[in-house]
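Pasting as-is:
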Amino acid sequence: MKYFYIVLLTLAHFQIHSQDQYAIVIEPVVDLLGQSMKKTHKGLDYYQNIPVSSVNSLDGISCPRIHQLLFNETVKVINETGKEALIEVPNIFYQKYGCPIKKNIFWILKSNLVSLNKLKKLKIDISKFPEPIDFKKDINNKKIITLVEPYYDKSTQMTYSAGTRFVYKDESPNNYIVYIFDFKKLEFKLIEIPKNICILNTNKSINNKIKNFIKLLKKWTLLENRFIPYVWGGSSFCNICYDNTFDTINMKKKGQQINYFQLPSYLDKIKTGFDCSGLILRAAQICEIPFYFKNTITMAQNLDVLSKTDKIENGDLIWIPGHIIAIVDVENNLCVEAADYSRGYGKVQKIELYKMFKDINNFKDLKRCYLRKQKIKRLNSESKIIAEIPFKILKLKSAWRENNNPS
């Protein structure tokens, strides 16, 4: 009990204020909102119980989550009110349709952050935290390892998401030795993480980075009768699910109409998983692709479209309004997507073209429709047509264009 009070008193000194400027995330996964919960909801408890997805994707009340941050990520604190802080996230941006202005501002619970200035005052070496992702800098200034699978650390008793980054110290034949900060004991520790569940940053070629991106997406779909759940605004992978039976919930909560999907078997308060854009963003950044685009509108406005002379290549993206799909095997007509509940899926999956679009059996069919500017008929899990929509094919290699960064 004495130790518990010491920890509380110590952490009280780390209370975030806007003048602290920079802070680091201290939880494995935290939800970010587009508006203050104080403004849109009656009570901040909803931060801890955001459902996997709203029924209507435009419904920011039932499911206000729009992004997730991971342990060790650094943010800039802009303002704070009550229990929340307004922050800038340096490695992503989003845009409105037809608008060139790049935005990267979100709301977060202040209790998920610790001030870097206050850590420095305690003589803690903050160079042992990874710097924010910046693909304009030489990535080998500091060796970083990045998880490609969840990892449970016994010393902190936490499970860290795929995409979590740690500063490299050393290695053994099978493990990387990295720094991890224990926020309860206020000290860095060295832990060993198996090499087969992480990537060490190197100066790989563009083609090799895209190959790693494809390999990673495929890996996340091969979980032996298990799956990563679809989570609206999700960009994390800590847990896997076994039962994809889901319910539609319609109710009133504190006078507000709430309509959302629920996975009864998924009881964690912070729902980890991916939506379609979060899947592509997280996988691309893990593989050191300079991909900063938070949502599908931003992707369509910043990536080049397929030209008449281009080939459809592995890693290219199929864009339709409100959805993005990765092409992972042109020869075998395979894609990977985070498919939502309204189509009957609710999971990250590998899927054949013909199961997504009627009369599109291969990528030759898809390119033919694209060049003719024809719409495609989208199918649900029961092979029923649910919409006839326009589409684009986006070139992943164009992510390397200079003007695609957040600044």
